[in-house]
Recover the amino acids of this structure.
């Protein structure tokens, strides 16, 4: 610390990096506490009485009183909130009313399916979105640029559940190119437990690890449509942002220098400009990845995909509030985590931020 | 017409009204040059027209069932978009559904931006701890996944149109607060604010009368760009059965009804989805065009 105080104007780079990281972690914690406060408030104003939900209508007064004390419902609100926070940090999200299982372990079974779907989606989005954005930026105003822009705007304007239904109608119903709803054909679904060990709960990885290539191909034919639809949504955002970053970068002087030196245009764009575009693009990709987790809610309903989104909507329909709120907390936490992580990556990648 | 044109194009406007009219006219001329934005404007106007005159335009009652005519394919005489499983004319339902869509959008855009404006201007004007606290709360709401929060809220409040609007509004105010705060910070230290303050204007008066109007253009651009998102979220809630309830002809709800016989009677789910798509595309094109002409930052590009 003594060394630092000698040069207050320019602290050591590593120290300032650490300090910023500590700041990030701090605001992450505060945001997460805010999330918990909101779910706590929602849980307390819910018209469904948790005691009646568990015991049923015909419980005796004594039973109700015992359970109320056990659930801590007679404590003052601030105390309940503290207990709530403690429980969540210990990984206790309560019990699902429907199954009486701990919610966190249930979510642990559902979440990998969502993760698999949205990861494949973001990969598709990146591989189409970035070239499309670059294409637009290199010839702004051209018909190719207009088409990329229009396709992007269409992605912003389509209800994802409708797009999913239309995809099913065309590619599954009429053309038969892809598998229908679900993760596997029912024939393979029955064989799944016998032949494949659930290592990651992600079906593509598990079947590949087990060497069941028939099953792998079947799983791929099922995941490709919902993943492409999610990919299209993220592509819309990624291509738009790539275009604007790239246009900004191509106006810089170092690009002119590179061109004047006779460097091939492809190298100018993909090596020189891309290096600088990549930094803000990290944030964009992370943001759309986080959004895909959310977009998965409606997509999973359409494709009977056993993921977190479906878990939450199923729970909603039978008023299983602990499960809904548990799912909300997990999605929110992942969402916040991805945002903070992208922030961190951004500072790691951008030398100016150090 | 020519006199109106010369009046508008006068380089030396004689009144405040004339200069304002000229400014609006110039903006309109720039806006008109963008064909995509014009398409967006036409779609938006068509939506408003449709919802106002729905009772006159619709050939059938949107709710009355007629089981003899159920699941007629498109281009059936009298039902050019076909009928649904209760024999209701889909075109009439879409026409009346535009009222619900417009109603939801209007309710959201008069609540969320206003709330965001108040939070943002108060936060930017007072600064200090007020700013820190308000912006921290804004950040927390911004860090939420929107649809999930809306789902949880509707789950608590119970399904229905008003609750859906409330949930959407509660999740969409933070960006407005951010925008309004940024604008407030740029005008807070201007001379005209200082002059008004020296005349003894109260903080409320300053914020309401002198700062908020300055924030309006950027907020309005944001509103047009957000309208499509509002429509999509509302339709999503309707689709999940958490928004508008049957038998009302809400578009998302209509898609979910058509889902049961998607492969045999494709039109029942397809038509309302097309309506949602066209309307939100229209709002997106309009918003994009408005931003190009109104936002000075993007004008140079």
């Amino acid at each position: 610390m003594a060394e630092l105080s000698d040069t207050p104007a320019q602290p050591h780079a590593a120290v300032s990096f650490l300090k910023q990281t500590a700041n990030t972690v701090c605001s992450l914690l505060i945001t997460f506490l805010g999330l918990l406060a909101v779910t706590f408030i929602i849980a307390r104003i819910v018209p469904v009485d948790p005691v009646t939900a568990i015991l049923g209508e015909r419980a005796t007064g004594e039973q109700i009183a015992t359970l109320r004390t056990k659930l801590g419902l007679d404590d003052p609100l601030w105390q309940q909130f503290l207990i709530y926070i403690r429980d969540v940090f210990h990984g206790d999200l309560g019990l699902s009313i429907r199954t009486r299982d701990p919610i966190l372990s249930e979510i642990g079974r559902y979440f990998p399916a969502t993760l698999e779907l949205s990861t494949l989606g973001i990969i598709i989005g990146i591989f189409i979105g970035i070239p499309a954005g670059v294409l637009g930026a290199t010839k702004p105003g051209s018909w190719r640029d207009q088409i990329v822009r229009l396709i992007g705007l269409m992605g912003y304007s389509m209800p994802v559940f409708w797009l999913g239904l239309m995809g099913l109608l065309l590619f599954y119903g009429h053309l038969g190119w892809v598998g229908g709803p679900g993760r596997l054909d029912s024939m393979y679904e029955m064989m799944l437990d016998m032949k494949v060990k659930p290592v990651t709960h992600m079906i593509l990885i598990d079947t590949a690890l087990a060497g069941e290539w028939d099953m792998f191909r079947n799983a791929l034919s099922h995941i490709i449509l919902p993943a492409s639809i999610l990919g299209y949504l993220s592509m819309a955002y990624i291509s738009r942002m790539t275009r604007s970053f790239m246009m900004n970068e191509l106006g810089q002087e170092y690009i002119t220098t590179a061109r004047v030196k006779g460097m091939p245009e492809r190298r100018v764009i993909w090596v020189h400009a891309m290096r600088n575009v990549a930094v803000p693009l990290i944030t964009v990709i992370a943001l759309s990845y986080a959004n895909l987790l959310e977009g998965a809610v409606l997509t999973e309903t359409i494709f009977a995909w056993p993921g977190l989104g479906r878990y939450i909507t199923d729970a909603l329909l039978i008023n299983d509030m602990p499960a809904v709120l548990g799912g909300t907390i997990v999605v929110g936490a992942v969402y916040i985590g991805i945002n903070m992580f992208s922030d961190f990556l951004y500072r790691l990648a951008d030398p100016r931020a150090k | 017409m020519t006199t109106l044109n010369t009046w508008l194009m006068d380089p030396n406007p004689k009144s405040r009204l004339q200069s304002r009219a000229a400014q609006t006219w110039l903006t309109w001329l720039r806006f008109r040059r963008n064909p995509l934005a014009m398409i967006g404007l036409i779609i938006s106007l068509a939506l408003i027209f449709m919802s106002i005159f729905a009772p006159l335009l619709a050939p059938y009652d949107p709710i009355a069932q007629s089981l003899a005519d159920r699941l007629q394919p498109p281009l059936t005489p009298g039902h050019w978009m076909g009928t649904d499983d209760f024999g209701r004319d889909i075109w009439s339902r879409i026409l009346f559904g535009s009222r619900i869509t417009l109603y939801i959008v209007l309710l959201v855009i008069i609540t969320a931006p206003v709330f965001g404006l108040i939070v943002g201007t108060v936060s930017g004007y007072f600064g200090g701890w007020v700013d820190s606290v308000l912006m921290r709360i804004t950040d927390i709401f911004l860090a939420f996944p929107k649809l999930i929060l809306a789902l949880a809220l509707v789950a608590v409040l119970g399904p229905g149109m008003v609750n859906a609007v409330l949930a959407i509004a509660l999740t969409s105010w933070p960006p407005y607060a951010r925008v309004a705060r940024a604008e407030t910070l740029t005008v807070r230290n201007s001379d005209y604010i200082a002059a008004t303050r020296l005349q003894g204007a109260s903080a409320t008066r300053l914020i309401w009368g002198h700062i908020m109007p300055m924030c309006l253009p950027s907020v309005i651009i944001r509103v047009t760009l957000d309208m499509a998102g509002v429509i999509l979220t509302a339709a999503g809630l309707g689709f999940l059965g958490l928004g508008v309830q049957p038998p009302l002809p809400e578009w998302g709800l209509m898609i979910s009804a058509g889902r049961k016989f998607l492969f045999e009677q494709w039109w029942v789910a397809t038509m309302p989805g097309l309506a949602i798509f066209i309307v939100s595309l229209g709002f997106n094109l309009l918003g994009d065009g408005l931003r190009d002409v109104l936002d000075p930052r993007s004008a140079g590009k």
Chain A has two domains: 15-89, 109-353. Residues 1-9 of chain A have pLDDT under 50 and may be disordered.
